[in-house]
Design goal:
Layout: H1 2-13, H2 17-20, H3 29-41, E1 48-53, H4 57-69, H5 75-81, H6 85-92, E2 93-98, H7 110-119, E3 122-125, H8 136-156, E4 162-165
Parallel strand pairs: 1-2, 3-4
The structure holds NADP nicotinamide-adenine-dinucleotide phosphate.
NADP nicotinamide-adenine-dinucleotide phosphate is lined by residues 51, 53, 99-101, 126-130, 142, 146, 166-168.
C-alpha cells in the first residue's frame, strides 16, 4: 500500500522518475518473505527464549499459539513447514512463563534458569506498562524493578553480548 502510494507520488512528480521508479507489483511478496527475508534473519538465531507473562508454561504456550503463531504473519512459514511447523517452532522457541516484576522473572525452574544463563547472549526487553495513569505500585514494579531484574539477569549470563532495552524517555 505504502509502496504503491510512493510509486504514484514519484510518477506524479515526474522529475525523479528515472532514478527511483520501480513497480512493487512485480515483486512476489510470498516468494520474497520465504526465500529472501526469512532466510536472511533466521539462521543466526539458534534459539529464542520468549518470556510470556503467564501463570504457568501451558498458559504461556497457549498465548504464543493464539496471540502470535496463529496470526497471518506466520502464514508463509506455515506453508513452508506444513506439518513440521510445530517441530520447527519448538526447536527455535522456548516459551518461558514469567513476569519481569519478579526476581528471576518468577521462574522457579532452576534448570531452565541455568540453561538461560548459559545460552542467552542477546536480550531484547520491551516489557512495560505504557499506561500514563497506571497504579504507582504496578508502574514501579514493571517498568522500574522490571528493568532492574532484567539487568540483574544480564549480569548472571555467561555469554552476554547485547542488552537491547526498548523504552520511552519523556521530558516532563
Ligand atoms: N509502541 C510504540 O510506538 C513505542 C514507541 C516508543 C517506545 N515504546 C516503548 O516500548 C516499550 C514497549 O511498548 P509497546 O508499545 O510494545 O507496549 P505493549 O504493546 O503494551 O507491550 C508491552 C508488553 O510488555 C508485556 N509486559 C507487561 N508487563 C509485564 C510483566 N510484568 N512481565 C512480562 N511482560 C510484561 C505485556 O504483556 P501482556 O501481553 O501480558 O500485557 C506486553 O506484551 C514501552 O516501554 C514503550 O514506552 C513504544
Amino acid at each position: 500500500m505504502n509502496t504503491e502510494k510512493l510509486r504514484r507520488a514519484v510518477r506524479e512528480s515526474g522529475e525523479e522518475d528515472n532514478m527511483f521508479y520501480f513497480d512493487p507489483r512485480i515483486i512476489d511478496w510470498d516468494e520474497y518473505f520465504q526465500h529472501i527475508h526469512l532466510p536472511a534473519i533466521q539462521p543466526n538465531i539458534k534459539k529464542l527464549f520468549l518470556l510470556v507473562r503467564a501463570s504457568d508454561p501451558n498458559m504461556a504456550l497457549h498465548r504464543l499459539q493464539s496471540e502470535v503463531i496463529n496470526k497471518d504473519l506466520f502464514r508463509v512459514i506455515k506453508e513452508k513447514y506444513g506439518k513440521n511447523m510445530h517441530t520447527f517452532i519448538s526447536q527455535k522457541i522456548k516459551v518461558v512463563a514469567g513476569d519481569v516484576s519478579l526476581e528471576n522473572f518468577g521462574v522457579m525452574d532452576f534448570d531452565l534458569l541455568n540453561e538461560m544463563r548459559r545460552q542467552v547472549d542477546v536480550i531484547v526487553n520491551s516489557a512495560a506498562t505504557t499506561k500514563f495513569d497506571e497504579r504507582y505500585d504496578l508502574a514501579l514494579a514493571i517498568n522500574t524493578l522490571g528493568s532492574k531484574h532484567v539487568s540483574d539477569f544480564v549480569n548472571e549470563c555467561f555469554n552476554m553480548k547485547l542488552l537491547l532495552h526498548v523504552s520511552t524517555g519523556l521530558n516532563l
